[in-house]
From TrEMBL:
InterPro entries tied to this protein: Methyltransf_25, SAM-dependent_MTases_sf
Pfam families: Methyltransf_25 (PF13649)
Keyword Transferase: yes
Range of residues in the leader sequence: none
Name by which UniProt lists this protein: Class I SAM-dependent methyltransferase
TM region positions: none
GO biological process, one term: methylation
Family annotation (Gene3D superfamilies): S-adenosyl-L-methionine-dependent methyltransferases, Vaccinia Virus protein VP39
Entry keywords, A to Z: Methyltransferase, Transferase
Keyword Transferase: yes
GO MF entry, a single one: methyltransferase activity
CDD domains: AdoMet_MTases
All residue ranges annotated as the Methyltransferase domain in the record: 37-132
């Protein structure tokens, strides 16, 4: 059997267009004098590599040591230097301050509750320099309550060596909660498939609550948009994008 970890398979199959869009959104909204960037929950470092290639001093922080190992491989392949740090985003006390902090892929929605989100917002505000900027996205309650329940996505590679199944269900135990069942299948030389699976839990928050938490953390200006912009373009956005000034 050819065994690959969940982190490796996730990195290989994640839509690269999303990283390009996050990069464009980031560059568009960064102040001209930005030098240092912390990409929080930066995973396999693909966005970090793109930003480092533009000349920024980039730190990628993630809870997963395996993801950071993959990020190191991407940085080496691209010939860029990045700081890699294993960290829980609810406690950034070991980190310095940055000109900008980014956090994408609805990472805050994986935290346990609003209390954890508030603590993380507080940590981020504390680790931004004066006039620093915080850019992030989250899925909306419309996504968790309407789009995700009953959602299914299936993928099979053209060579029939890999397959991916993603199913989502409503989480009745929390408001605006959703459960994702993810399974990767890789085919070995013997023709049999090896399965790697995980269960992910997400929850969304109402926009007024998010704004309140950001204000409480110390952000004095908050712009909210959708579709990779800072203006709402849909009646029912599935994802919000935030630009926050300290």
């Amino acid at each position: 059997m050819i065994y690959q970890s969940f982190a490796q398979l996730y990195d290989q199959l994640f839509d690269p267009e999303m990283y390009q869009k996050w990069e464009e959104f980031t560059i568009k909204n960064l102040p001209a004098d930005t030098k240092s960037i912390l990409d929080l929950a930066g995973g396999s470092g693909r966005l970090g590599v793109m930003l480092a290639a533009r000349g920024f001093d980039v730190t990628v922080a993630d809870f997963s040591a395996e993801m950071l190992s993959i990020a190191d491989q991407h940085a080496t392949k691209a010939g860029v230097n990045m700081h890699l740090l294993q960290a829980d985003m609810r406690d950034l006390s070991a980190l310095p301050q940055y000109d900008a902090i980014t956090c994408y892929a609805d990472s805050f929605c994986y935290l346990a509750d609003a209390k954890a989100v508030q603590k993380t917002f507080n940590e981020i505000a504390d680790h931004l320099k004066d006039n620093g900027i915080f850019l992030f996205d989250v899925i909306s309650p419309y996504q968790t309550d309407v789009i995700y329940p009953g959602y299914m996505f299936n993928y099979e590679g053209e060579d029939h060596q890999r397959a991916f199944i993603w199913q989502s269900f409503k989480d009745d135990d929390v408001d605006h909660g959703v459960i994702h069942e993810l399974a990767f299948f890789t085919r070995g030389n013997d023709g049999r498939y090896d399965r790697v699976g995980e269960t992910h839990y997400e929850r969304a928050y109402e926009l007024p609550l998010l704004k309140q938490m950001l204000s409480q953390a110390g952000f004095n200006s908050v712009e909210v948009g959708s579709n990779f912009s800072t203006s709402i373009k849909e009646e029912n956005p599935t994802r919000w994008f935030f630009k926050c000034h300290k």
